[in-house]
Design brief:
Beta Polymerase, domain 2, 4 helices, about 40% helix
């Protein structure tokens, strides 16, 4: 499956759980760690877990893939799902501001969502 389609499936899964400020950044020209970074926001521990679970379920069902690794899901301040060519970051607002990944990956290409 095309990696752009994967990131769009993940973004839609985030949107369905009312994630805020969903950003899709193509980093394949500026980094070797991944092709896409998805950054989104949940307003509570419960919402971060719900968004993370939604992404996992949708990518499992639609693309038949599982994350290579997961981090932070239990604490749910910043959850990370690593799918290799797609890295999904779900933050609570204060943590997102602190790490400011959008600035870190500002040399990547942004994809508008929704399209």
């Amino acid at each position: 499956m095309d990696n752009k389609l994967l990131v769009l499936i993940a973004a839609k899964a985030c949107d369905e759980k009312k994630a805020k400020e969903i950003k899709l950044i193509n980093i394949d020209k500026v980094s070797y760690i991944s092709e896409w970074i998805l950054i989104a926001e949940g307003l509570s521990d419960v919402q971060v877990r719900s968004i993370t679970n939604s992404v996992e379920v949708e990518l499992r069902e639609q693309a038949n893939i599982e994350p290579i690794r997961k981090e932070g899901v239990n604490e749910a301040k910043w959850a990370l799902l690593d799918y290799g060519d797609l890295i999904v970051n779900i933050f609570q607002p204060d943590i997102r501001k602190f790490y400011d990944l959008e600035s870190f990956w500002s040399n990547g290409d942004n994809l508008s969502f929704p399209q």
